[in-house]
Amino acid sequence: MRSLLGRFSHLGLRWRLVGWVAALSLLCLAIAFVAVYRGTGTQVRHEIDGEIAGDASEFTHSLIQSDPRSSAQAATDAARYVRGQPFSGSSTLLFAVIPGAGTSTNVPELFGDQPPDDGETVAEQRQENRQAARLLRIGEGYSTLALPDVGDLRLFKRTVRLAGLGKHSGVVVGVGEPLVAVVRAQRGVARAFILAGALALLGALLGAWLIGTRMSRPLRRMAAVAARVDAGDLAPRIHDEGRAGETRVLADAFNHMLDRLTEAFAAQRAFAADASHELRTPLTVIRGQIEVLATQRHPPEEEVRRVESLVQAEIARISRLVDDLLLLAKAEQPQFLRTEAIEVPTFVRELWRTTTMLADRRFELQGVAEGTLTADPDRLAQALRNLLANAIQHTAEDTGLVLLRVRPAPVGRIRFVVADDGPGIPPDQRRRVFDRFHRTDSARDRASGGTGLGLAIVDAIAIAHGGRVSVSESPFGGAQVELELPHFSAGGQTHRTPASVSSAADL
Ligand SMILES: Nc1ncnc2c1ncn2[C@@H]1O[C@H](COP(=O)(O)OP(=O)(O)OP(=O)(O)O)[C@@H](O)[C@H]1O
Ligand SMILES: [Mg+2]
Q1: Among 116, 225, 346, 451, who pairs with 120 as Cys (CB 3.0-4.6 Å)?
Q2: Ligand 1 within 6 A of 422 CB?
Q3: Do 311 and 344 have their domain in common?
Q4: The model scores a pTM over 0.90
Q5: Rounded to the nearest 10 degrees, how much is the dihedral formed by the CA atoms of 426, 431, 434, 435?
């Protein structure tokens, strides 16, 4: 059974639908057949019961009306009545058992011992006679008997007291009718059911097959498209799958997924090209310098020093680039973060101290939210250092303003805001600066040293923490980057550091 079901589940949608419809139709037909078959039998039997009860009443009435004075006269009256109602096929068996005068009936062969019929043995006939004798023995009311040569017979018996025969002797009146009508009606029902059922089943199967074909068509088309995609062709899309419904939704989702895949592959290709380009540039410089050195038989000491420091700088650039690429690759893995509870003021002040040592700017640390943040301290420090490095890089030496503000945000979040008074980021670039290797036109020269991965790393760190990062214009005309992270629980008043520059406007 299980292997049959297993084989069935491997069939296509169409054939499975046809199979289920066939099974359900057969089940419904079988239930309906049993109900109608039995109902018909019960109804016809009720009708027969009504008829034989009516015939018994008539028979009784005629006996009472003839008012016999003796048993013999009663027998004569009964015989006259029953002779007028011959028993054949579906018509009625009538009998009256009159005390002292025997049985008057329209089927005498059912009463008393009969000789064997043609082809019957004596034993068989004796058996039949015994069964017939049950007609007389059986109690009053309705009963069903199997009788020889008649089949199933429905019988109704009652006792009637005739005034002329004395108070104590009753005449037993019996009326019977063969149940062939029930069998015939039930056979008719069975025949009609087989014919109608077969036609209905055929119709249902055909309908199921057509519906299955129609329903599975988009899926087959999708499978064909998926096969082409699997073979490396990302161009095909699924069209014309109706205006609504699940298949439309599925087709849209499928097309959307292919669009995303195409974009992802293109981005991956661009990323690989950018990465190789960024790696190739310092390698070219290193090779060029070494070649220059190699052409000289005895290069001067200072020339060797110059090449050495240049090569060192390019190697440092390569290794920073490789570290950044590795970090971005790791950012998509679950074990990227090692979170712990961070005391925000201590953390921010330490970070601020080390950053402000790196350059000469007007550094300003505004409000620092008191509280604890659950985050990875190394990654958070890296993200903030990237933002501060950008601000330092794009502001004027000594006079440029670099500002950090840390404030609580609604529903357990914290916002780190880094602002400067540099040239800012044009609005149309504000989303793209988070793309890997993206640099604005003004920052494209290699002298600035950037590879365009800093903000992509900040974005990856924000997303890994369940937060977000965005760029806008600072109140000082420069860039303002906001890094918002969840899992902050405030633990006191906002702290104002003595390092704050009072002239800077509040953000
Ligand atoms: N504070 C800022 N002011 C103006 N432009 C900025 C600022 N921060 C970022 N940008 C622009 O966004 C681009 C992307 O910044 P990102 O930090 O990702 O790369 P990068 O600084 O060029 O290189 P990296 O950070 O990898 O050394 C920069 O090249 C620059 O054009
Ligand atoms: Mg940067």
Answers
A1: 116
A2: yes
A3: no
A4: no
A5: -110
Q: Is residue 219 part of a domain?
A: no
pLDDT for 114 equals 61
What pLDDT does 503 receive? 34
Residue linked to tokens 């003004």: 442
Based on the domain organization, do 433 and 481 belong to the same domain?
A: yes
Query: How far is the centre of ligand 2, averaged over its atoms, from the C-alpha of 414 (Å)?
Result: 22
Ligand 1, residue 444: give the atom nearest the CA. Answer: 29
Between 148 and 495, the more confident residue is 148
Better-scored residue on pLDDT, 83 or 501: 83
Q: Which of 439, 441, 461, 471 to mutate to test the pocket of ligand 1 (most atoms within 8 A of CB)?
A: 439
Say if ligand 1 is within 6 A of residue 453 CB: yes
Quick one: 74 and 152 in the same domain?
yes
Is 420 touching ligand 1 by the criterion CB < 6 Å? Answer: yes
What is the domain range of residue 347? Answer: 337-496
User: Is residue 398 in a domain?
Assistant: yes
Say yes or no: CB of residue 400 within 6 Å of ligand 1.
no
Render pLDDT for 96-105 as a digit per residue (tens, 0 to 9): 998 888 888 8
Whether 323 and 344 map to the same domain: the answer is: no
* HSE toward the beta carbon, residue 150, CA cutoff 13 A: 28
Q: Which atom of ligand 1 is nearest to the CA of 448?
A: 22
50 and 177 housed in the same domain: yes
Asked whether the beta carbons of 372 and 489 are under 8 A apart, the reply is yes
Strand ranges, E, within 314-387 = 340-343, 362-368, 371-375
**Predicted pLDDT of residue 502:** 33
pLDDT in tens, 271-305: 888 889 889 989 999 999 999 888 988 889 999 99
Residue 458 Cβ contacting ligand 1 at under 6 Å: no
Residues 172 and 273 occupy one common structural domain = no
